[in-house]
Amino acid sequence: MVNQITSSHSTLRSSDSTQTDRVAKQQPVAAVAKVVEKKSKQEQQHSAANGKNRSLLVQTSQAHQQAAQAQSAQKALQDASDMLGQMRQLARRSLNVQEGKKDQLQQSLHQLKNKLTKLTREARYEGEPVLHHDLSPRLSGEQPKEEFSFKGMRLNTMRKQDEILRFQFDSGTPSSVRIRIDNDENNHEIAEKFNQALAPRSIQVDIDKYGDLAFSIPKAQWPEVKQGVWMSGGGQILPSGNPIKAKLEQRDKTAIEPQDLEFGKPQSTRKALADIERMMQKVQQSLAHISKVQRQVSQDLEKLVATNMMKSGVMNDDGVIEASWLEAPNNVSLQLLDNAVPTLLAQANASRHNVVALLEP
């Protein structure tokens, strides 16, 4: 209607300006405002519906991603378990075989060790690792910590002067950290200074039950720290002089990495056998955890359906997918319904027939 007014106005002669004003004043302006207001409300409702659809799509996509990631980690751990079983068998044989036949077994053990180490580093889902260095699963939404300490740090000695501590990292950024400790600061104040200085390296610092500094870092970043840290001080908390390489001690004494297994001598082979047993137990615990995660994802998705969220804006009364679902976020398509959703629901023993029943009013 507004367009009609403008068009009529443009065709009037300049001498009819009075008539133009009269025509403009006679137009139902209030009616136009009501139409615009009504249209605005419809747009808001449509936008809200699309927002709900997008939210549902995002949740469904996230569930699919989480389940697929867990499945990739599960497959990698099953392969790791098979390799560990072979290593255990070969290591036992190497302890009882004659000297002349040990070389071939040693070669096979090192090949398996390298293969397992490679699996730990390279097992991925969509370019992201699915295992940590110690064969624990690396799943979205989970941020396990690696707790450690710096051996040789003397926190509880008498301090007569201020001290500047320096940490130099072989890998990652920032490459160096500097901390100034006043001689009259207590352990909690020192821990807070460490915490602030090491925060850019994602290292958290606290005081343990013995009054010593306790360090922790996300497991994903532990390999960077483990590669090497050099430290120096003023001779009170840390030795003075040239930097010395820090000796890092993990709080979890059972944490073992495949690359640390050694089979060169009978003594190291026996230790490796004990480590392999612990690693196999840890892998089984990880597989049980993944199964729990998969069940939870399936249950969450089933609840999503059961609350009738899918019925609004996803399927019409005839069971046909609404066109509004075509306005999906990036990397999400309608194929998700045909592939990912039924697969996830199947884990929760929810068939396509049961889903339809859930959607019925």
UniProtKB/TrEMBL annotation:
<protein>
    <recommendedName>
        <fullName>Flagellin</fullName>
    </recommendedName>
</protein>
<feature type="region of interest" description="Disordered">
    <location>
        <begin position="58"/>
        <end position="79"/>
    </location>
</feature>
<feature type="coiled-coil region">
    <location>
        <begin position="95"/>
        <end position="122"/>
    </location>
</feature>
<keyword id="KW-0175">Coiled coil</keyword>
<feature type="region of interest" description="Disordered">
    <location>
        <begin position="1"/>
        <end position="29"/>
    </location>
</feature>
<feature type="compositionally biased region" description="Low complexity">
    <location>
        <begin position="59"/>
        <end position="79"/>
    </location>
</feature>
<feature type="compositionally biased region" description="Low complexity">
    <location>
        <begin position="1"/>
        <end position="18"/>
    </location>
</feature>
